[in-house]
Amino acid sequence: MNRSNGAPSGEEEAALARIALGLDGAQAAQRGRTAEARVGFEALWEALGDQDVFHRCVVAHYLADLQDDPRAELEWDRRALAAADSLGTGRAQTYESALQVRAFYPSLHLNLASDHLKLGEPDLARDQLERAVRSLDALPEGAYNASIRTAVDELRQRLR
After folding, report:
1. Distance between CA atoms of 5 and 67, rounded to whole angstroms?
2. I need a labelling partner for 115 at 20 to 30 A (CA). Which of 10, 65, 72, 143 fits?
3. C-alpha torsion sign, points 65, 62, 49, 97
4. What is the pLDDT of residues 1-33, one digit of tens each?
């Protein structure tokens, strides 16, 4: 905040603009306007730049779910995983302990397994599913944990 006139600084204005892009994308997705949501989240992805890898991980995760093409979905899921891999746990913990990067991995690997299965690549799907299973202990107890474990079991059944 500019102390002399109470107006936001340039950095604060940029942060507010990024928040607005994220809200626009989320609202469009909730209303089923997938193409509009993609545009909003892609703009946010570009606005975040390479420095904000925590939010890039989250945005890529959302963007993967908004893709019509399985190859594009795989690419966004790979970007989400790459962002998570580049993050130190200290950065994630500054947001909230429940958002530790380790807790992202079961879902990230599960999504990659699903992508590979859609693309007819069962061996790659099995590899990613195994990675998801190995990271399940990072999930906090609760409904989210149960939903990921259920999805792992369902995908395991489909891969048999």
Report:
1. 44
2. 143
3. negative
4. 454 555 556 666 766 666 666 767 677 777 888
As given in the structure block, the two tokens for residue 127 are 């590899």
Give the separation between CA 113 and CA 126, rounded to whole angstroms: 7
- Amino acid, res. 128: Q
Identify which of 102, 124, 117 has the alpha carbon closest to the alpha carbon of residue 151. Answer: 117
Burial (CB count within 10 angstroms: exposed 0-12, middle 13-18, buried 19+), residue 113: buried
Do 41 and 18 form a contact (C-beta atoms < 8 A)? no
* Cα–Cα distance for residue pair 110/26, rounded to 1 Å: 22
Burial class (CB in 10 A: 0-12, 13-18, 19+), 82: middle
- 3-class SS at 28? helix
Asked whether the CA dihedral 147, 29, 27, 108 is positive or negative, the reply is: positive
